[in-house]
């Protein structure tokens, strides 16, 4: 220790005093400076809401000059201290357009953020997560809940048409409750399933898409390129549609949506002859020409006219029996034998309108109630929905009740968990065979389209009066005078049926129960790391009952036939899927580098049970359960199991948000294949370049964003279908490597091979190249242009085999097809002021399909018979270098003016029987030759356009879709101009242009019964599939919040909405959207719906 002298003490004391003084002075100055600062600062507050007035939690509020800021609370409120130098406040939120506000002397800010759905800065849902669209290298398009809520759709599969580029939709049936088929960027396979993979709340979905209430959907993301789809592996070969349901946000709220409307027919019927007199005039020509041109004893024109007038009617021997709706004076004919016109003295005894008897307008009503909200720990949404969608045919419609609970809980800073559960109970009432059989006489659409106007619904006496039974009820006419004593005669249009009679007594309904559950646990074990476990369970149960009554129709008691006494067919299905995945995600940003890594494992299992049984002879009137029937006619059941095991990973990197790279790898093992070929490896690579982030591009004031992107990858397809000619044709085949048999239990029991397995088959391979550019200019126009090139190799085809094998085809891997095209998507904000906003959008897609490679035994040949190698229909043939959907059929060469015969082209042959390369005409169809037509079933361009206009509290939106190029084979029209039919059906009005001795220059062959060559399959029935559909118009009004808030209501919106308002096509009655490959049907027509709705928020 150092000793201190007395001399040193005063010095130390002085030093201590100085230090103490300085500290106190510094403290005083600091306090004075702080007080001065406080006087120079002020506190601002505010509230941030979305376009509907709903609070936005976690919105970012910053001072532009300093970068300091805060986030809004769950109610959207914020409080921020600013100094005197602060001039600009910036408010932003993901998916919304940011706003810059002048601070000035204002202390409270009411900020309403508008959506920027088309902005490249938005966050989009991608495989196993989300991504900023600006830095994502894949191809993705997204629909928001607002795009869906404008439309009156029972199922979300009907909401896509015209809104998203690259998407084509087709619906063979407009039956309420039925969905639409969807393909992305063309048909990626010829004989396998081509539907995209559905993913709901992050997990692949195998339930009924009709079970999801569109009102519960927050967004739908459509993934098309390799970078977007490869991570889902084999099930994503045809693209991915990701559905994200709504979650609770902000303070508690209660929403009610109501809608009432009317359903009417959306597509008119073909322009057929409905006037009985005009029909008889045409039929008179039919009989006359038969007499003139018959092979033996042909008559002169005058004699043939007299013969036709005499032969048309007569009990038991007349061409139309006694189905004569006209009364004429004694000794006169209904049709004048010279002029061929209806007798001016004829009076109409009866006329029944079949369409009025079975079609009617029905009501549509829909209600949705939901409660939602969130805190800093919990998010919740509970919704309940009811839909009653009446059909335009008696006893058809769709009812559905849905209930959803979405919960998320933040347990602490490192643990979060959630549960999404949806239940749907549905009932769909159908008409017999409207969808089951395209040309069944029990199909009301087929029947009413073809029935001649001379045939009544009810039996009439000789004077045209109704025939009544003993109880005074009208007696239905079944057209069979032998089988039904009260009938009028033998009707030459299915003489044992009357679908109106059976409509009230027959039933076909399908009841469905769907349970869909998703649960997750998210753990943050360390900074930048997230571990997530997802489990999903989907249950789909359905019970379809088809009851045919014991009184009328082909299940009734028919004289001279087996007493059926009613028929019941019960089909039941129960499908369950379970999926469990584990995901480890790493995200980190340091300096200008951003990196994201994902590794995962996934197990998928599908179990499906089905049963089918038919019984006849129902013993107790009014009871239709199978237990009350005595005779078993058929009984079958089935059980399938399918599993997929997967490992996958993804790496994404960006430098300075400017240079972008991504890669993914997935390995799938599918139980569909033999163990030797069970595993497949799929991958993708992507790159992007955000040029607008370069300093030299920032000088371009008009340029908002400009990005180039490219990706390439390989995915597989294992969705093998049973080929035509097998017991389960068109259904999924889960055991294609094994022989499959059917057991015949009628008569002596025996077993027969139904499907010949092939253990060597493996994945169909899809190689996808995508090149694109995304841009935004003038803060008004956003758009994208993408080129895609898709090679499908090792195609799974059903190849013809020797008859001795016992089957028609065997599945093999062979050949390559190419789908190449581009798509454009443009969105323009034309006017954007405080009171008036107007925007438009347009998109279009063009692609072509070519066969690139076939096996040696098929290359260079023209021997591939249509329908034998997996191509549906009878008008296509597969050949290298050709579009597999180019029509290959007979060519119609016109009408011979001399006799009205149809002419067709055939190859000219030289003296040695070799083709000369020239075409000549023939009037014998069997001698004609099939040719490539140069006309494809695939449209040249498909797409849509939309516009949205908002003025103050009023809003108007329009959605339309279109198709240009492409051809449709109009089979219903072909049947309606069948001038040689032996069935007596009505005709399309084009038959009035048919050849006759006084009308020799025409393109419609002569009408002559039994002249079948007049109406053979040919390009005569190909018609342009161009169309324009006005899909949706919505006009709404939102009540000012100031006028309703005092009642505790935060929002009221009333609106009128119309769907399927107009369809323009090249022929009345033709809807080119029925099929992707130009097929047409006699199914349930689309429905037009006009409704009024009102929505409340509390």
Looking at this protein, list some descriptive labels:
single chain, 5-stranded mixed beta sheet, 1098 residues, 22-stranded antiparallel barrel, 11 helices, mainly beta, 44% strand, disordered N terminus, 51 strands, Immunoglobulin-like
Describe, in plain words, how this protein is organized in 3D.
The chain has 1098 residues and is mainly β. It has a domain of 71 residues: Immunoglobulin-like (Sandwich), CATH 2.60.40. It is 9% helix and 44% strand. The protein has eleven helices and 51 strands. The strands form twelve sheets. The protein has a 22-stranded antiparallel beta barrel. A five-stranded mixed beta sheet has the order 10-15-16-13-14. Strands 3-2-5-6 form a four-stranded antiparallel beta sheet, with no helix packed on it. It is globular. It starts with 7 loop residues before the first helix and ends with a strand.
Write the layout of secondary structure elements.
Layout: H1 8-40, E1 42-49, E2 60-63, E3 69-71, E4 77-82, E5 88-92, E6 99-102, E7 108-112, E8 123-126, E9 129-132, E10 140-144, H2 145-149, E11 167-170, E12 181-184, E13 197-200, E14 203-204, E15 217-223, H3 226-229, E16 240-245, E17 253-265, H4 276-293, H5 301-311, E18 326-327, E19 347-348, H6 354-358, E20 362-374, E21 378-390, E22 397-412, E23 415-429, H7 444-450, H8 499-503, E24 507-523, E25 529-548, E26 567-590, E27 593-618, E28 629-655, E29 659-670, E30 679-690, H9 695-698, E31 703-717, E32 740-744, E33 750-755, E34 764-777, E35 781-793, E36 796-800, E37 809-813, E38 816-832, E39 836-853, E40 886-890, E41 892-895, E42 902-909, E43 915-922, E44 930-936, E45 941-951, E46 954-964, E47 967-969, H10 971-976, E48 1022-1024, E49 1027-1038, H11 1041-1044, E50 1051-1065, E51 1087-1097
Parallel strand pairs: 1-7, 13-16
Antiparallel strand pairs: 1-4, 2-3, 2-5, 5-6, 8-9, 10-15, 11-12, 13-14, 15-16, 17-20, 17-51, 18-19, 20-21, 21-22, 22-23, 23-24, 24-25, 25-26, 26-27, 27-28, 28-29, 29-30, 30-31, 31-34, 32-33, 34-35, 35-38, 36-37, 38-39, 39-45, 40-44, 41-42, 42-43, 45-46, 46-49, 47-48, 49-50, 50-51
Helix pairs in contact: 4-5
């Amino acid at each position: 220790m150092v000793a201190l002298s007395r001399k040193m003490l005063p010095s130390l004391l002085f030093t201590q005093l100085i230090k103490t003084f300085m500290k106190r002075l510094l403290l005083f100055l600091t306090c004075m400076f702080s007080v001065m600062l406080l006087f120079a600062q002020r506190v601002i507050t505010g509230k941030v809401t979305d376009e509907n007035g709903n609070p936005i939690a976690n919105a970012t509020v910053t001072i532009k000059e300093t970068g300091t800021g805060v986030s809004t609370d769950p109610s959207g409120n914020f409080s921020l201290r600013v100094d005197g130098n602060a001039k600009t406040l910036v408010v932003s939120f993901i998916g919304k357009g940011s706003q810059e506000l002048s601070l000035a002397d204002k202390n409270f800010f009411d900020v309403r953020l508008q959506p920027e759905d088309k902005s490249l800065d938005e966050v989009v849902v991608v495989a196993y997560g989300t991504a900023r669209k600006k830095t994502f290298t894949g191809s993705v398009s997204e629909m928001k809940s607002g795009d869906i809520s404008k439309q009156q759709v029972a199922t979300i599969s009907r909401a896509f048409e015209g809104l998203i580029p690259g998407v084509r939709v087709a619906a063979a049936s407009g039956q309420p409750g039925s969905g639409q088929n969807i393909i992305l960027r063309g048909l990626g396979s010829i004989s396998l399933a081509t539907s995209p993979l559905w993913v709901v709340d992050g997990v692949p979905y195998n339930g009924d898409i009709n079970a999801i209430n569109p009102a519960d959907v927050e967004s739908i993301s459509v993934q098309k390129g390799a970078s977007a789809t490869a991570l889902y592996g084999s099930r994503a070969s045809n693209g991915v549609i990701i559905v994200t349901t709504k979650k609770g946000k902000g303070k508690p709220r209660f929403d009610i949506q109501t809608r009432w409307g009317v359903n009417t027919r959306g597509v008119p019927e073909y322009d057929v002859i409905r006037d009985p007199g005009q029909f008889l005039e045409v039929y008179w020509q039919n009989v006359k020409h038969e007499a003139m041109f018959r092979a033996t004893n042909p008559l002169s024109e005058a004699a043939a006219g007299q013969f036709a007038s005499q032969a048309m009617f007569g009990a038991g021997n007349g061409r139309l029996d006694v189905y004569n709706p006209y009364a004429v004076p004694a000794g006169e004919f209904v049709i004048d034998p010279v002029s061929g016109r209806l007798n001016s003295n004829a009076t109409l005894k009866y006329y029944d309108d079949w369409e009025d008897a079975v079609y009617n307008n029905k009501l549509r009503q829909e209600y949705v109630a939901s409660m939602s909200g969130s805190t800093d720990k919990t998010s919740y949404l509970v919704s309940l929905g009811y839909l009653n969608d009446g059909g335009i045919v008696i006893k058809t419609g769709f009812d559905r009740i849905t209930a959803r609970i979405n919960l998320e809980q933040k347990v602490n800073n490192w643990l979060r968990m959630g549960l999404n559960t949806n239940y749907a109970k549905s009932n769909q009432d159908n008409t017999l065979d409207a969808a089951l059989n395209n040309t069944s006489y029990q199909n009301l659409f087929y029947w009413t389209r073809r029935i001649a106007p001379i045939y009544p619904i009810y039996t009439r006496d000789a004077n045209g009066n109704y025939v009544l039974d003993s109880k005074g009820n009208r007696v239905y006419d079944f057209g069979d005078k032998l089988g039904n004593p009260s009938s009028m005669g033998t009707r030459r249009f299915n003489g044992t049926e009357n679908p109106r009679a059976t409509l009230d007594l027959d039933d076909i309904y399908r009841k469905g129960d769907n349970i869909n559950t998703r649960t997750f646990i998210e753990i943050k074990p360390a900074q930048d790391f997230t571990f997530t476990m997802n489990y999903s369970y989907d249950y789909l149960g359905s019970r379809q009952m088809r009851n045919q009554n014991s009184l009328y129709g082909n299940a009734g008691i028919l004289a001279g036939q087996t007493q059926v006494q009613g028929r019941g067919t019960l089909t039941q299905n129960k499908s369950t899927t379970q999926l469990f995945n584990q995901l480890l995600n790493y995200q980190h940003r340091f300096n200008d580098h951003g990196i994201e890594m994902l590794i995962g494992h996934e197990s998928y299992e599908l179990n499906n049970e089905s049963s089918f049984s038919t019984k006849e002879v129902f013993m107790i009137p009014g009871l239709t359960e199978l237990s009350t029937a005595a005779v078993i006619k058929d009984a079958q059941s089935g059980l399938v199991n399918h599993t997929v095991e997967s490992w996958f990973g993804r790496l994404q990197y960006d430098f300075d948000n400017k240079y972008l790279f991504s890669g993914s790898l997935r390995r799938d093992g599918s139980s569909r294949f033999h163990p030797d070929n069970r595993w497949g490896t799929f991958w993708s690579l992507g790159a992007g370049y955000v040029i607008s982030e370069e300093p030299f591009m920032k000088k371009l004031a008009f340029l908002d964003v400009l990005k180039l992107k490219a990706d390439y990858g390989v995915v597989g397809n294992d969705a093998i279908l049973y080929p035509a000619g097998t017991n389960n044709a068109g259904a999924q085949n889960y055991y294609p490597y094994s022989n499959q048999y059917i057991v015949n239990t009628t008569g002596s029991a025996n077993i027969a091979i139904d499907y010949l397995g092939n253990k060597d088959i493996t994945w169909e391979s899809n190689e996808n190249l995508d090149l694109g550019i995304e841009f935004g200019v003038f803060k008004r126009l956003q758009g994208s242009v993408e080129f895609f090139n898709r090679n499908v190799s090792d195609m799974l085809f059903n190849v013809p085999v020797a008859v001795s094998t016992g089957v028609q085809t065997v599945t093999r891997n062979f050949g390559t097809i190419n789908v190449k095209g581009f798509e454009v998507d443009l969105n323009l904000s034309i006017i954007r002021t405080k009171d008036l906003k107007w925007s438009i959008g347009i998109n279009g897609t063009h692609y072509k399909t070519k066969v690139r490679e076939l096996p040696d035994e098929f290359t260079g040949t023209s021997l591939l018979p249509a329908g034998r190698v997996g191509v549906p229909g009878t008008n296509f043939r597969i050949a290298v270098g050709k579009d597999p959907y180019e029509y290959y059929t007979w060519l119609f060469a016109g009408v011979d003016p001399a006799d009205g015969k149809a002419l067709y082209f055939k190859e000219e042959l030289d003296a040695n029987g070799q083709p000369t390369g020239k075409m000549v005409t023939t009037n014998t169809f069997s001698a004609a030759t099939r040719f490539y037509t140069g006309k494809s079933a695939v449209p040249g361009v498909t797409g849509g356009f939309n516009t949205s206009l908002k003025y103050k509290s009023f809003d108007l939106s329009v959605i339309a879709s279109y198709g240009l190029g492409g051809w449709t084979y109009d089979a219903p029209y072909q049947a309606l101009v069948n001038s040689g039919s032996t069935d007596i059906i009505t005709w399309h009005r084009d038959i009035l242009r048919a050849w006759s001795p006084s009308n020799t220059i025409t393109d419609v062959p002569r009408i002559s019964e039994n002249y079948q060559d007049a109406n053979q399959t040919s390009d005569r029935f190909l018609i342009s599939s161009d169309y324009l559909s006005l899909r949706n118009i919505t006009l709404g009004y939102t009540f000012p919040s100031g006028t309703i808030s005092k009642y505790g209501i935060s929002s009221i919106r009333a609106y009128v909405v119309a769907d399927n308002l107009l369809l323009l096509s090249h022929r009345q009655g033709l809807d080119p959207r029925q099929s992707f490959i130009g097929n047409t049907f006699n199914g349930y027509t689309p429905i037009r719906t006009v409704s009024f709705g009102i929505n409340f928020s509390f």
